[in-house]
Amino acid sequence: MSESSTKQVDDARTTAPTSHAALSAWVAEVAEMTNPAEVYWVDGSQEENDRLTAELVQTGTFRRLNDERFPNSFAAFSDPADVARVEERTFICSQEERDSGFTNNWMDPEQMKGILTERFTGSMAGRTMYVIPFVMGPLDAEEPQYGVEITDSAYVVVSMRIMARIGTDVLRKMEAENAFFVPALHSVGAPLAPGQDDVAWPCNPEKWIVHFPEERSIWSFGSGYGGNALLGKKCYALRIASVIARDEGWLAEHMLILRLTSPEGRSYNIAGAFPSACGKTNLALLDPTIDGWKAETLGDDINWMRIGKDGELRGVNPEYGLFGVAPGTGWSTNPNAMRAIAKGNSVFTNVALTDDGGVWWEGMTDEVPEHLTDWQGNDWTPESGRPAAHPNSRFCTPISQIDMLSDEYYSPDGVEIHAILFGGRRKTTIPLVTEARSWANGVFMGSTLSSETTAAASGAVGVVRRDPMAMLPFIGYNAGDYLNHWDKISGLLSAERRPKIFLVNWFRRTQDGGFAWPGFGDNSRVLKWVVERIEGTADANETPIGFVPTGDSIDLTGLADYNAADVEAAVNVDKDEWAAEIDGIEQWYANFGEALPASLRAELDGLKERLGA
Ligand SMILES: Nc1nc2c(ncn2[C@@H]2O[C@H](COP(=O)(O)OP(=O)(O)OP(=O)(O)O)[C@@H](O)[C@H]2O)c(=O)[nH]1
Ligand SMILES: O=C([O-])CC(=O)C(=O)O
Ligand SMILES: [Mn+2]
Asked: Sheet of 313-316: strands edge to edge?
């Protein structure tokens, strides 16, 4: 460490603007280890944000977009090897290997700390170390869930300001309560030698996304990408929070929350767990295509559910922004997202640039621009034969910019959940919608949920895998214990207030390869059936797997070229497909051994019997 940088770090340490002893001690310890050029405490103000974005433009990380069409918005382009979550580099380092379980990578926590300490030693040299106080969920919650992220990336600071409540207000309340906070340490792992030029997207070829569940701490090294680097999101609000939820008797889930109001004025809050890039944001911003129905957004990715006074399930969205998949988000498929984005204050990552300083991605407009600069900076034309935007390119936008945001979003007590949807991306087998036979049968549906892999995580795309409750990459502990925890929560809910559970699949294909269902805004038609099943007014056919709509129980008014026979095909339960599915479920359940709840084994036995398998 040079003499001058030692002095700057010391200065920052002694002037740490907090009376929270544990926090100032941790910040000092990290500064000592990582050796940044300076330490900066993030206040969350607009002036600060303007300064940071200007710096990011200067260093080449950000491109400022056309200010008329995308006010105060920026585009960033990542290293081509840093575009998605890295599940094979993600670890749950519990004291006992058993508590991490077969769905997670594990290493002994002491050994892992040794490796990480080596990586983090000097890792912030030549960079600013930012300290970001944040809270997941409302600051006026009964027990605010605090965190502090330390990062050497200004891109992370600007993005965290969109995705979470951050800054001085949070810090002051945390100090006043001398509250516990989740320490979340992040470095891109690209120290700068004196005089060394920076690159637009610093990162390290070696990545470590590590969680210490007993300590409730996070260490993330080497990546700047959202799910790996914005530590309030997947790392805290899902992996660490799922452990806290297990210990405290609630659920931290990968779910959207949507409020739907019927023409008669009855409102229902619907939660939906779909794996990454399988339609949560799109459903959360639903634009109903049926008359008189109103949809309001509560959350698009994460749902913390606690049990209310009357044994009801209550959900809160702990986030403050959207980090949405760009491709497929368009004026025809998701106009509500497009309107939110058009208000500006957004960061786009790995999208394409138009010649007039705007952004574009596949599916944004029906008309494809004649010329673009693709996400890797190359000239692009429709003849190029490759996507202009990366398939996992993202927009990061304040949730407050959604016109259809429910007032209840701000409620610290959340909303009662009336229905839960489990959904996957399956070309075959899984009907458009199936109502579970019972709550236990619905938990079975969640535990056996399956989906084709997407570009949201590195690795092969399109491979069917089991993804229990869409939480496979996010359960911060033993997956068997997780299913048992769902079982336990079931017992705590009032029998009358238990949400109805449905399995959905917007992605089934027809013989000729097209989608069996139009999807997007037309999903309101399926939700109408869901609501009518809750109210007991819609027709259904009983099948071995559950109740599916009759051909004419789905409202198809105004939907050209689609009829009751198409609905029947979309909800068909095929015996051969289900025989194969049962094999898949058996294999999946075998992983759990003794830990599989008896109620789920009983559900599987019942299903086999009904299928005559
Ligand atoms: N065919 C069809 N595609 C859909 C539908 N809903 C969403 N999609 C597409 O699925 C992709 C991902 O959708 P999102 O809504 O962003 O997924 P998400 O579940 O919020 O994803 P994460 O943010 O990764 O957790 C986009 O390309 C959408 O266009 C639908 O109803 N039908
Ligand atoms: O975590 C991310 O980067 C985005 C996301 O929502 C997911 O992958 O499920
Ligand atoms: Mn997600």
From this structure: 251-253, 303-307, 313-316, 415-416
The residue annotated as part of the active site, out of 93, 203, 235, 278, is 278
Binding-site residues for GTP, please? 277-282, 394, 425, 520-523
pLDDT in tens, 437-451: 999 999 999 999 999
- Kindly give the distance from the C-alpha atom of residue 225 to the centroid of ligand 2, in angstroms, as a whole number: 10
Altogether, the residues listed in the chain come to a count of 613
Q: pLDDT band at 16, cuts 50/70/90?
A: low
Q: What is the pTM of this model?
A: 0.97
ipTM value: 0.99
**Please, what is the Cα angle at 318 between 267 and 40, to 5 degrees?**
150
For residue 55, count other CB atoms closer than 10 A to its CB: 14
Residue 173 shares a structural domain with residue 275: no
Give the chain's mean pLDDT. Answer: 96
How large is the angle between the packed helices 479-492 and 598-611, nearest 10 degrees? 90
Range of the domain at 459: 252-321+407-611
Is 278 labeled as catalytic in the residue annotation?
Answer: yes
Angle between helices 21-34 and 109-120 (to 10 degrees): 60
Q: Residue 7 above 50 pLDDT?
A: no
* Number of domains the chain contains: 2
CATH number at residue 259: 3.90.228.20
Residues marked as binding for Mn(2+)? 234, 254, 301
